[in-house]
Design goal:
This protein is α+β, with helices and mostly antiparallel strands. It has four helices and eleven strands, in the order ααβββββββαβββαβ. Strands 4, 5, 6, 7, 8, 9, 10 and 11 form an eight-stranded mixed β-sheet that branches. Strands 1-2-3 form a three-stranded antiparallel β-sheet, with no helix packed on it. The relative contact order is 0.14. It binds zinc ion.
Length: 218
């Protein structure tokens, strides 16, 4: 069978003028098996990458056969704050997809070279223009089906005045009875708020780590 023959053997046969058609067929076949989508390029050298399990690993990775770089994909961190003024919580209405028009705690993707607290404070400033005093990390939530980890710090607002950024339609304070529970953008936000209002009754805010498994029921 053609596939069982090695490429060097077929190249030798080609050089001697035999099996030209067969070598063309087998090379086309090999290329189609090994080829990854055209948009997947190596960030080191620009060559196309191949998705395969590297030696000693257990999961498929994007591997560059030209320079040897293995491109690992890992979960993303989303950091934000639950910022409070008197008995009210700061929420932002999203001006971007996903969940345009829905309410969220100010939060966003962590950048390289910053701490989790710096990320949470920066996102609060960018999305709400809110000046805050950072308190402790309050919730840490694994969301494995979207490969994200969400963390929310409690924070104290230094002023009730906001200056929302481009990603926010509106930033405002909500008392517990005013929270738009049916218009919250993310389950991590909902569950963080639920814990907060329950804990506030006791005046004690223990660190909470939990998971949200799978997409929401439709
Ligand atoms: Zn490369």
């Amino acid at each position: 069978m053609v596939i069982a023959e090695s490429i060097p053997t077929l190249l030798q046969q080609a050089r001697t003028g035999t099996h030209i058609c067969r070598i063309k067929c087998v090379m086309t076949s090999s290329a189609s098996l090994m080829q990854t989508p055209a948009q997947n390029f190596c960030r080191q050298c620009g060559q196309t990458v191949e998705t395969r399990v590297p030696p000693g690993d257990s999961l498929p990775r994007q591997c560059c056969n030209h320079c040897g770089t293995i491109h690992y994909e890992n979960p993303k961190m989303v950091l934000g704050t639950l910022a409070v003024w008197e008995d009210k919580v700061l929420l932002c209405r999203r001006a971007i997809e996903p969940r345009y028009g829905l309410w969220t705690l100010p939060a966003g993707f962590m950048e390289n070279s910053e701490t989790t607290a710096e990320a949470a404070q920066r996102e609060t400033d960018e999305e709400a223009g809110a000046q805050i005093e950072m308190l402790d990390l309050y919730t840490l939530i694994s969301v494995p089906h979207i490969s994200q980890i969400h963390g929310f710090y409690r924070a104290r607002l230094l002023s009730p005045d906001f200056n929302p950024g481009e990603e926010t339609l509106e930033a405002r304070l909500f008392a517990e009875a005013e929270i738009p529970w049916e218009e919250l953008a993310f389950r991590t936000v909902r569950q963080t708020l639920q814990h907060y209002f329950a804990d506030r009754k006791t005046g004690h805010y223990p660190f909470r780590s939990f998971d949200i498994i799978g997409p929401p029921p439709k």
